[in-house]
Design a protein that fits this description.
mainly beta, four-stranded antiparallel beta sheet, 0% helix, 40% strand, globular
Length: 150
Amino acid sequence: MIHNFWSAGPYAGVIFDNAGNLYGTTLNGGQSGSGVVFELSPSAGSWTKKNIHQFSNGADGGQPIARLAFAGGNLYGTTSSGGAVGVGVVFELIPTVSGGWREKVLHSFRAGNDGANPYAGVILDAVGNLYGTTMFGGRVGQGAVFEVTP
């Protein structure tokens, strides 16, 4: 056992970075209860957990339910709620020189043709475009496949 969660809801899996740290999301938890992105770092035979981003369920998104993607030192993911109209965002977390992380919202879903409520994560192509799916929205309201160019 590496870490126990008490009430946060880590529905998605975890991913490794190049240094051996694990990253994942929780549906709930954090200061606003809207989920977090966490890091588990190996340390002297055990693992240390740190929340690297806490969602507010506002413009930054909320309730991340899917696995993250890692590329070029950055983390990419989706939230199933929050954003401009409350139906989720695609985000990027960028490490800062001070050791923290800065969130950049790459797309805020509008529940139109772009989709709504992305419950799955994203994949990246060779040039850095992100692809994923939404549960709702799209032309007939039954979901969409999206592409986001950071």
